[in-house]
Specification:
Layout: E1 4-9, E2 14-21, E3 26-33, H1 37-41, E4 48-52, H2 57-66, E5 71-74, H3 90-102, E6 108-109, H4 114-146, H5 155-166, H6 172-202, H7 207-212, H8 220-230, H9 239-245, E7 250-252, E8 261-264, H10 270-286, H11 294-306, H12 308-329
Parallel strand pairs: 1-4, 4-5
Antiparallel strand pairs: 1-2, 2-3, 5-6, 7-8
Helix pairs in contact: 4-6, 4-8, 8-10, 9-12, 10-12, 11-12
Length: 342
């Protein structure tokens, strides 16, 4: 039987579909409404379906998999669908995806579970709430400073003194606007607590999160972020690949037998990388000389040799490798140096 390969150039409103056979012959090319994509494919059979990664792709892929289809999410960063013949159109992109499926050379993106997507969405929503709150607090501080009213540092001190400081403003319009912003800050803080409570409840019985929290430098939110991004630890070959996935390895520009390393790649999940770097910096700031943890002592020696910033990134890289080891072996963190296996 002839094998059919379907390439989908996925967009918010419409999607372009291209079908080729195992000989590379184009059999079908059409455009349909994205909301009708899953029903349209429900009674059709293909060897592989390829869909380029974008917003909403995971939901559609899950629906297609539930319908019995073999679906691959194409990594848009590694596969630049520039079209065929030097001209980029939706039709040519869909055809290019179909052909790369036929040759079995499609760079894929891991399809995350619904639980992992729920955790990641709630984490990102909390991040947006925090940023909005910080922006409003900074605006109120800056405006009050324009009128000679200085606020003490710290969120707790700000909430303690802000109401009295607002009453010192003579202009009623400015005073009322800032009072409204203060009300928004209180609402945002309440929503932050709701998001954090939801994350705690969703991960209360998650052993992976509990074991990650035993690692110094990986806190509550950091452990949840790692669990949400990793989802299935078996998809990573080793700890080095995991550290590379979250962008904590140096860029490489090597040629002619000469190896050139630069700054870290900063690829992958920004939120996990940021949590690990913040945790690493906290370890370096609060590690004492009589510490028994060999990883922290290694970071302190590196700090004396290379400086605070490089040691922080190096420790974040080590934390990523430790997290991989804990998830892979399903055990808690220990401060003793593990024995080498012959």
């Amino acid at each position: 039987m002839t094998k059919l390969y379907l390439g989908i150039d996925f967009h918010k409103n419409t999607s372009t579909l291209c079908v080729v056979d195992d000989q590379g012959k184009k059999l079908e090319l059409n455009t349909i409404t994205t909301s009708k994509l899953v029903p349209f494919l429900s009674n059709r059979k293909y060897e592989v379906i390829g869909i380029e990664a974008s917003g909403g792709t995971n939901h559609v892929v899950q629906k297609l998999k539930d319908g019995g289809h073999n679906v691959r999410i194409i990594n848009s960063n590694k596969f630049k669908a520039v079209g065929l013949g030097g001209k980029k159109t939706d039709d040519r992109d869909a055809e290019a995806i179909a052909h790369i499926l036929r040759t079995n050379y499609a760079p894929e993106v891991f399809h995350k579970s619904e639980r992992a997507r729920n955790l990641k969405s709630l984490l990102v929503s909390r991040e947006q709430l925090v940023r909005a709150r910080v922006n409003l607090v900074n605006h109120i501080r800056g405006t009050l400073r324009e009128y000679g009213i200085s606020m003490p540092a710290g969120m707790d001190k700000f909430l303690e003194h802000v109401s009295a400081s607002l009453r010192l403003l003579l202009n009623p319009y400015i005073r009322d606007i800032l009072a409204g912003m203060l009300s928004q800050i209180e609402t945002l803080m309440m929503q932050e607590k709701m998001a954090e409570a939801g994350l705690e409840e969703m991960t209360a019985d998650d052993e992976r999160v509990a074991k990650l929290r035993t690692v110094p430098g990986i806190g509550n939110l950091g452990s949840i972020a790692i669990a949400a991004v990793v989802d299935d630890i078996s998809r990573f070959k080793d700890a080095k690949h995991f550290a590379s996935y979250i962008g904590l390895v140096p860029q490489e520009h090597s040629s002619g037998g000469k190896r050139m390393l630069g700054s870290i790649t900063r690829s992958g999940s920004e939120i996990v990388r940021r949590y690990l770097i913040h945790g690493a910096r906290a370890l370096l700031l609060h590690t004492k000389e009589d510490c028994k943890d060999y990883n922290r002592l290694w970071a302190m020696k590196l700090k004396d040799k290379a400086g605070m910033n490089k040691a922080t990134v190096a420790m974040a890289h080590k934390l990523a490798r430790i997290a991989f080891s804990i998830l892979k072996s399903n055990r808690e963190y220990t401060v003793e140096r593990p024995k080498r296996v012959a």
